[in-house]
């Protein structure tokens, strides 16, 4: 009986060791594949450190991540315990996302990013006020984040309210309408869907507002230290369109 027990122990020990070896081999094989030039090109991989250092590269990283999401190639990077431990003592997000609170627009998912990558500020219609401005300034000054993206989305309820202008709006919801109604009026002459036209115009105006925001963002922007651009997420396709109107005549990068 004792011999049988010893044999069983030896057998299970061997099985455990063999299983561990197989897992290690699979992990090494996967790492080798994901490090290949071909795989990185197929998945639009952009270096994380470069994206943090240069907002133009950060923009490409967001665009690549959204392409993965749309094409069903999401890699869900930096979403593990190892990353949690790395971030214990601080964060260095490569982009600030000023977006809408809509539950259909989960920023890390649609850009296929992970822990510590995005500094996210969300309100309905991405309407900003003092607390939002302070959060952006904190990210730029303290965290050294150099890219700010204003992210609207199609079929936005807050924008729809500004277009429709209902009477007797309850509570503080009216503050959202008041902030967006100028964009709704400015885009009202355009052909197409009035809400989605207003969504685009609202993003453009919010981008311009942040670029002019003193005392911090305006100077950082005109000096070429940061970029502030706008985009719209399509809730029907999952695609993020970076608006050409906000990509033109960007300031030259600050000389190092």
From TrEMBL:
EC number annotated for this UniProt entry: 4.2.1.1
Cofactor: Zn(2+)
Function: Reversible hydration of carbon dioxide.
UniProt-listed SUPFAM superfamilies: beta-carbonic anhydrase, cab
Signal sequence region: 1-20
Similarity comment: family membership: Belongs to the beta-class carbonic anhydrase family.
Swiss-Prot/TrEMBL catalytic activity: hydrogencarbonate + H(+) = CO2 + H2O
Source species: Chryseobacterium salviniae
Gene3D superfamilies: Carbonic anhydrase (3.40.1050.10)
CDD domains in alphabetical order: beta_CA_cladeC
Keywords noted in UniProt: Lyase, Metal-binding, Signal, Zinc
The name this protein goes by in its record: Carbonic anhydrase
Coiled coil, from the record: none
Pfam families, sorted: Pro_CA (PF00484)
